[in-house]
Input
Amino acid sequence: MNRVKQFINCVFAKITKKDMEFINNYLDENEKKILYKLPVYDLKHSVNVARDIYTNESEEEIKKNNLNHKEIVKSAILHDVGKIHTPLNVIDKSILVLLNNITKTKIKKYSDRNSKIYIFYNHGEEGYKILKEKGYDKEFLNIIRNHHNYKIQNKWLDILRKYDDRN
Output
């Protein structure tokens, strides 16, 4: 049912003035230039993930884990920037999600560096490369790189994944 909701949200995605204000509270001009290269549906998804974190994760609880609330929200806004070079439209995503589930990730072997399959599985790595050039710290970069790598566990990744999966 969550996938159906995600599909509908993707089809009808639009960026509002409220979304723009939210983004402006967290990103500088250079970060926004990167972010705005995303298709509107990926941009809206990222804003929804970040806003969900902002709304549901208290600063006090995050501080207890020696984390920074603003950095977590910023990472949520930027977590999918690796998709900018090879965007996946709503049909691409739907097909890849289905094929991924049907083949139990075996479609991964058909991905070459420029394919949509590659981006589906490796947009975290591509986002890491994009942001690494911009001078982000190692921890932030590793969050972007590993937001779909469930073998790595830490509180920051857990928070991002929780809201990424919901949106």
Notes: The radius of gyration is 15 Å. The chain has one domain: 2-166. DSSP finds ten helices and no strands in the chain.
